[in-house]
Specification:
Blueprint (H helix, E strand, L loop, with lengths): L1 H13 L4 H17 L3 H11 L5 H25 L6 H4 E4 L2 H8 L4 E5 L5 H14 L4 E5 L5 H13 L2 E5 L4 H9 L3 E5 L5 E8 L2 E5 L2 H9 L2 E11 L2 E6 L11 H22 L14
Parallel strand pairs: 1-9, 2-5, 2-8, 3-4, 3-5
Antiparallel strand pairs: 6-7, 8-9
Helix pairs in contact: 1-4, 2-4, 3-4, 9-10, 10-11
Length: 285
């Protein structure tokens, strides 16, 4: 979809803080509310998780979800002019948890999801790692449109992220972690139908990979979330590493570690549901 990439590149040059940012956000918000991508799925997901909620509330949340996506696009495009702007736009709580692990050369899985401006959050983590003479890795999933996929990889690499395809072997990723790598994992999408655990109180297929690499490496799993307080004003919160049950059975341990990861993500989403990406088909039959 080369025409879409050309349009995005136009807004990459145009978007900025101030008036240009507001114009860009209004354009994306208008487009999203007009097309309503996966609009029915958003409402179905909200009804599944919040069964007692009124329809009006679900539609209002859908509008806010589109607005969050519009600002995420606007801010991410404006960020391309200078990735160090992330330090100005983001305040961080408990960043010493990550920094101490880096100083000790200890690897970590940074557990996060598609909420707030997740692209800005990853950019801040990459810039912070660079300050400490380290690298920040992120596991990504290839999207169907080759042109948009290539563009996304380029802007992520431009901000300092090292890309790892989700099809990379768990042993290879665990080896990186054992050697001190910090790897971002967005673990809030559907996964292997053989692994089903609750997510937001509803049975869901889940990805086994994040739990598997944590088990193989023995490294810390550190939950990290980012919220937008205002346009171009964000807050990242870093949490203490998760504690997992010591169970010998591999399959049972994999399931319980995945469940604990899901619980950590749930806490972020419940605080600001309008800033989560409800467009994912998270609860597949």
């Amino acid at each position: 979809m080369k025409s879409a990439v050309r349009a995005i590149k136009f807004f990459e040059h145009f978007s900025n803080t101030g008036l240009r940012g507001k114009i860009t956000e209004k354009f994306f918000s208008f487009l999203l509310n007009l097309i309503k991508p996966r609009g029915n799925l958003i409402l179905e997901n909200l009804a599944r998780v919040y069964p007692q909620s009124p329809e009006r509330w679900r539609k209002d949340i859908r509008s806010e979800v589109y607005r969050n996506i519009a600002w995420t696009l606007t801010e991410t495009l404006a960020l391309q002019k200078n990735h160090e702007q992330a330090f100005d736009w983001v305040k961080v709580r408990n960043e010493e948890i990550i920094n101490d692990l880096m100083k000790q050369k200890k690897g970590a899985v940074l557990l996060s999801g598609h909420f707030g401006n997740w692209e800005l959050g990853a950019s801040w983590l990459a810039q912070n790692a660079k300050k400490h003479g380290s690298k920040m890795y992120v596991i990504y999933q290839t999207i169907h449109d080759a042109d948009i996929n290539e563009y996304l990889i380029k802007i992520r690499e431009r901000c300092g992220l090292v890309m790892i395809n989700k099809n990379t072997s768990a042993m290879k990723i665990a080896h990186l972690l054992k050697n001190g790598a910090h790897i971002i994992v967005l673990n809030d999408i559907s996964g292997d139908k053989r692994l089903r655990v609750p997510f937001m109180g509803v049975d869901a297929t889940s990805m086994p990979g994040p739990a598997l690499i944590a088990m193989l490496s023995g490294c810390a799993v550190v939950p990290v979330c980012i919220y937008r307080n205002e346009p171009f004003q964000h807050e990242i919160e870093v949490f203490e590493p998760l504690n997992f049950p010591d169970i010998k059975n591999h399959e049972e341990r994999l399931k319980l570690v995945t469940l604990e990861m899901n619980k950590a993500l749930e806490k972020f989403i419940k605080q600001r549901p309008e800033q989560w990406f409800w467009l994912h088909n998270r609860w597949k039959n």
